[in-house]
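Usage

Read records sequentially. Each one opens with the input sequence:
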Amino acid sequence: MFFEKNGGLLLQQQLSSNEGNIEKTKLFTKMDLEKATDNYNANRILGQGGQGTVFKGMLADGGIVAVKKSKLVDESNVEQFINEVVILSQINHRNVVKLLGCCLESEVPLLVYEFIPNGTLYHYLHDQTEEFPITWEMRLRIAIEVSGAMSYLHSATSIPIYHRDIKSSNILLDDKYRAKVSDFGASRTIKVDQTHLTTRVQGTFGYLDPEYFRSSQFTEKSDVYSFGVVLVELLTGQKPIRSTDAEEDRSLVGFFLQAMNEDRLFEVLEARVLKEGKEEEIITVAMLAKRCLNMIGKKRPSIKEVAFELGGIRASIGSSSLQHNCEEIDFVGGDNTRHSGTDYSSTGSILNSVAYSTDADPLISN
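and closes with the structure output:
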């Protein structure tokens, strides 16, 4: 009964049109996940959001997972849940959280993800501790990794995928502090002949594209705007909605753009960024953020351009490393599996920043 209520038939129908992905989406039993999470013990909670609660779990084989327990859903939300399963089953990229499977036989539907141990980028930027400060080097690498994953979603899959809720709390950090984009509940796949998606406005205040807010038309440039806000967070260390008495200064975007227009960029940067970042690197990232935050969507760069420009900053720091990596990879007729073990997050590698990343073997091929 719950299997049908939670969209099991819809999921089977959706996945059957992509037969190669059915085996990759494992159906867990209710008992599997109750055991894994110690009956959803409050001590196992990793995080809570608008769509549900995430628990840490251990499977019978010892594997550590994150179990997302959706809130009680009505029929419209069932479709959103199944949408997340279908979209994630089609994504294979090192900087996107991997979906391992789902469970539809419990009262509320459950998603099972790979476990990402080091929490959210939001936590490291806004609840910093002296034990682990997030360096400029890390900030730049995370920006490259996230833009590379978004570029893959927008253009390396045969059907573009728009995330629709890019924010620092949806960027997780793994054991090596590599970025992993998560939470695809609001995502949509867009047919190539569609230029935008008209829908009820959803997203997170502070990251929401004002053009989308006004028109209800979501485009790829709406994701670019949200990423621009993340870039400003990385530069300033401040939250998208600032804690200040002055109403006009509450929006981080407005505060940042005003500082840029008045040539006061270096007054609003976080101290660590100011201390560790090279002036030209900081200015390049800030100018890129400003372009991403243009009020007119068409004037924003594509996320592919953003990824390429961010990768260019890394390349200028270690051009010899870049040349070495490029010599290893043959893009023309490229063998996508041949170099999958190479670590492209190393300094100087631009490859992490473009949609053709060799470790991003799309399950939906071009």
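Summary fields computed downstream for this record:
- The chain has two domains: 1-114, 119-318.
- The longest helix spans residues 136-156.
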